[in-house]
Write a structure and sequence with these properties.
Elements lengths: L13 H5 L3 E3 L2 E2 L18 H4 L16 E8 L3 E11 L6 E10 L10 E4 L4 E8 L4 E9 L2 E9 L11 E5 L1
Antiparallel strand pairs: 1-2, 3-4, 4-5, 5-6, 7-8, 8-9, 9-10
Length: 171
């Protein structure tokens, strides 16, 4: 095969792809990447947005880790994408954090790299929303082995508005 570093180095026929089992309808086996390939998020734009653009795809963030639980919101001018990230998964216990990236209305990344939005302890299952001027990030966290629902607010350029996470609920 063309990539000697590929995890699966065997040719797969079109027939095998089309006849593969469903993983989650409409996705079949060969539509999905194996766990060891990492994760990805895709923002799709309508033809009216993509038409005439020299570059129709922009990379928001990369990391050699496991990125899961993506969530996205639009504030009228741009997007905030957040996800659960296991960048230090070789640590015991693993460090789970919430990372994020911003994109403008066309989907182009605003900053050159993803930012860690929530990191103290284990942070997971992010959800984002916007009222048009402020982004709200809510996520599950831990504090002294107690589960808590936390939130952070960010301005339109991604700067935190709160010195510390806001505790919404706890075990």
């Amino acid at each position: 095969m063309l990539n000697p570093k590929a995890q699966f180095r065997k040719e797969i026929s079109l027939e095998a792809v089309l006849q593969s089992a469903y993983v989650a309808d409409p996705l079949k086996l060969y539509d999905c990447c194996p766990f060891t390939d990492g994760g990805a998020a895709v923002v799709l734009a309508g033809e009216d947005v993509a038409k005439g653009r020299r570059r129709a795809v922009w990379l928001l963030a990369t990391a050699a880790a496991s990125e899961v639980e993506p969530t996205v919101t639009f504030d009228g001018n741009g997007y905030l994408v957040a996800w659960e990230d296991y960048r230090d998964s070789d640590l015991l216990p693993p460090k789970y954090a919430v990372f994020g990236a911003q994109a403008d209305a066309t989907g182009k990344g605003v900053h050159p790299a993803a930012s860690e939005l929530a990191s103290a302890g284990a942070q997971a299952q992010p959800s984002v929303a916007s009222n048009g001027s402020v982004y709200l990030l809510a996520y599950n966290g831990t504090s002294s082995n107690t589960g808590v629902l936390l939130a952070r607010r960010f301005d339109a350029v991604g700067q935190p508005l709160d010195a510390a996470p806001i505790s919404l609920a706890s075990d």
